[in-house]
Design a protein that fits this description.
alpha/beta, about 260 residues, Uridine kinase, P-loop_NTPase
Length: about 260
């Protein structure tokens, strides 16, 4: 998490950093009624995902290409109008941005919405209304979304950006799987890294100049997940390996 250095706009595989969200709001989009499925429908998602060539897997736990996961996401029923909205959530510093960028590539350049484009210094977790109004609503109607990304240098919202209503759209950031958003997600992925380890990694990434921002962020994230947890509702858990990722059924699957 970087308190002063942010980019703007949606991109297929751009690098961003993350806040999350907290305030519920209404929307005109219709939630997909059948997002949750039984364990049997997820049995083929017990995979290890790697980004290099590998032999054909002899059983479901063997390494496969990242594009196999992407292919499975493409085959999901639409969840937000004609769009398959896929959330990638996890603690700050857990690797969401990097994983999402690689997944977007395998999806042929799928649009990515970074939630730190909707958060602000004053509203680290208060972006839900903007997300539902400016992004979920239009996508649910089959229209491109337009939103104003926050400029973390100028501390103000910039010019409007477009998020295409593509077959698969990825939403990454802390709080991507919050309760107000889950009804519109085709799948919810959780980056499986302990919060202390994730925060430590993020602090090392951002340096001592951002230590004050991180102090405030950690308090805000603790409160957010205490009030609106994501992991119990995750369809898939993503663990970073020395090379590639391991993807396993999440609590939403194993508890059914």
């Amino acid at each position: 998490m970087d308190g002063t250095r942010r980019g703007s706009g949606a991109s297929p595989a751009g690098a961003r950093r993350e806040p999350g969200g907290r305030v519920p709001a209404g929307t005109t989009a219709t939630p997909h009624p059948g997002r949750r499925t039984t364990r049997g429908a997820h049995d083929d998602l017990l995979v290890k995902v790697v980004t290099h060539a590998a032999p054909a897997p002899p059983h479901p736990g063997s390494p496969i290409h990242l594009h196999t996961l992407a292919s499975r996401l493409r085959r999901l029923p639409p969840s937000c109008g004609p769009v398959r909205l896929v959330g990638v959530d996890g603690h700050a510093g857990s690797g969401k941005t990097t994983f999402t960028a690689r997944l977007a590539e395998e999806l042929g350049g799928a649009p990515v919405l970074h939630l730190d484009d909707l958060a602000t210094h004053e509203e680290l977790f208060g972006w839900t209304g903007r997300l539902l109004r400016d992004v979920v609503g239009p996508l649910g109607r089959g229209q491109d979304a337009r939103y104003r990304p926050y400029d973390w240098h100028a501390r103000d919202f910039g010019g409007a950006r477009t998020l295409p209503a593509a077959p698969v759209v990825l939403v990454e950031g802390v709080g991507a799987g919050r309760r107000a958003v889950r009804p519109f997600l085709a799948r919810l992925l959780w980056m499986e890294l302990a919060r202390e380890d994730a925060w430590e990694r993020g602090m090392r990434r951002d340096g001592s100049a951002q230590s004050d921002f991180w102090d405030g962020w950690v308090r805000a994230e603790r409160q957010h997940f205490a009030e609106d947890p994501t992991k119990p509702f995750a369809d898939l858990l993503v663990r970073q390996l020395p090379e590639g990722y391991e993807v396993l059924p999440g609590p939403a699957v194993t508890s059914t």
